From TrEMBL:
Family affiliation: Belongs to the enoyl-CoA hydratase/isomerase family.
Cleaved signal peptide residues: none
Function noted in UniProt: May play a role in fatty acid biosynthesis and insulin sensitivity.
InterPro entries according to UniProt: ClpP/crotonase-like_dom_sf (IPR029045), Enoyl-CoA_hydra/iso (IPR001753), Enoyl-CoA_hydra_C (IPR014748), Mitochondrial_ECH-domain (IPR052377)
Any single Pfam family the record assigns to this protein: ECH_1
Protein name: Enoyl-CoA hydratase domain-containing protein 3, mitochondrial
Record SUPFAM superfamilies: ClpP/crotonase
Top-rank taxon, per record: Bacteria
Keywords from the UniProt entry: Fatty acid metabolism, Lipid metabolism, Transit peptide
Keyword Transit peptide among UniProt keywords: yes
Native source species: Caulobacter ginsengisoli
Amino acid sequence: MTPTDPLVLRRDDDAVARLTLNAPASRNSLSLAMLDALKAELAALAAEPKVRAVILDGEGPAFCAGHDLKEIQAHRNDPDRGRAFYEALLDRCAQVMLAINALPQPVIAVVEGIATAAGCQLVAACDLAVAGEAARFCTPGVNLGLFCSTPGVALARNLSPKPAMEMLLLGEMVDAPTALRFGLINRIAPPGQALETAQALAAQLAGRSAYSLSLGKRTYYAQAGLPLADAYREAGKAMADNMLAADAAEGIDAFLSKRPAVWDNP
């Protein structure tokens, strides 16, 4: 990578967009510049209905090693001891995680190597995750006297409480089979084949109704934080809207007629 190379690479394959964190020398750390670049790419994708699935991976041997600790340390000599920078950094990071959540398209993380601290948070923020057999995950902040509180937000929404607290309290590396058991990832691929596995999943998603996937993703996250009765009301309204959509009429008719559906995708 040269200083002029983009921090996030984008490559499209038909209806699937692939975003690659492109700072291998820093293990694709989430510096402020990296977060800004990723946020800009996500904003662009949100406005492109022709893209129906997104893959997120990292260049080099690591997916993402979390925040740039050198950048963090460099601001300790600021007049406010770095508080303004740290708050801006964490706010920007939260904006990126929320942008993934709000993106109309499903996002698949691809992990070969390590995903640690905010990098592990990034995996948890994605809708799906595929890891190579050698992938490892960790929220090691506690080992540095810096508890991974913001990664804990994403972990708490992916893992049950005991595995989430185990990762956060112990700060130990978790291998791919354990991450699968904990609920952090969906699939384990043979070494070097995580991207290929994710591309196959993305192709499946791209063949679905874009409207129903977008509505379904939005509804899933909206109802997940609601009390049970409110969740059913939210989901019921969304499903009624979905039933009235052209794609639902087409899909049901295609099923009853035993023919392939033709979605009204852009």
